[in-house]
Amino acid sequence: MKKKILSGVLAIVLSLAMVSPVLADSKSACVAIGADNTEAQLKTVYGYFDIKRGDVEETVVTNADEREYLEGVVSLDKIGSLALSSVYVQEKSSGGIDLETHNIDWVTDEMYKSALGTAGIKNAKVIVAAYTPVSGTGALTGIYKAYEAATGDSLDEAAKTTAVEEVVVVGELQDAIGDDAVNIINSLKGEIAQTKTMNDDQIRELIVETAEKYDTVLDDQQVEEILVLVNKFNELNMDPDTFIKLMEAGQQTQGFFQQVQNFFQEIGNFFTNLK
């Protein structure tokens, strides 16, 4: 009886695999290592990347490189004086951003994904790692360098700078109001076609209304910080429809894998009950 049940389960799993999202073709890859890591620390980092050192091109990011984007935007305690975070970036043909982090304790996965969309990175596998917990703000510089080396394309400088500022604004907002911070910013990105034609007072009103949708009340300083960011979004060559589609694709993928996880949990419960 159990053999028949197991055969049926395997058939379901196989059929589920047939309809699962097809992983996008991978292309070139590059690693950007923090310059201040020791060899032993880099061994730990490459373990997170699950590759051997030398398997892909490697570039180096210094603290000076990080400060080029962060100084004046991020508090000194978050910049630090060492470049420790490292990143693995692999270009993909499609499929959006696949991202994972290790020992990053301030910038969240969703913050990275949102900022990379702002910087113009649409399809890539990205792993951000450090041998010890770090804020993760400096990793954006490494992602830029690794992505440009892997693809041969140069990202827009204004977009890269704005993406860094976005991480800072969202991070500080998240400290104050929680996880909906990134949702508020992403919702405003989806309104770029409208905000480009608005004056500052109209944008402020939209910011307040957007926050209210997430049951959040912003203070005047938070509204002003977001206003500055929205105006910078408006100056970029960013297609809101494309961005919305990328976000929806990510949400659908997350939903699919949650369904798979639930499915296997139910299978485990089923066999437990057979005992």
From TrEMBL:
The keyword Signal applies. Residues 1-24 form the signal peptide. It comes from Acetobacterium wieringae. This is DUF1002 domain-containing protein. Keywords: Signal.
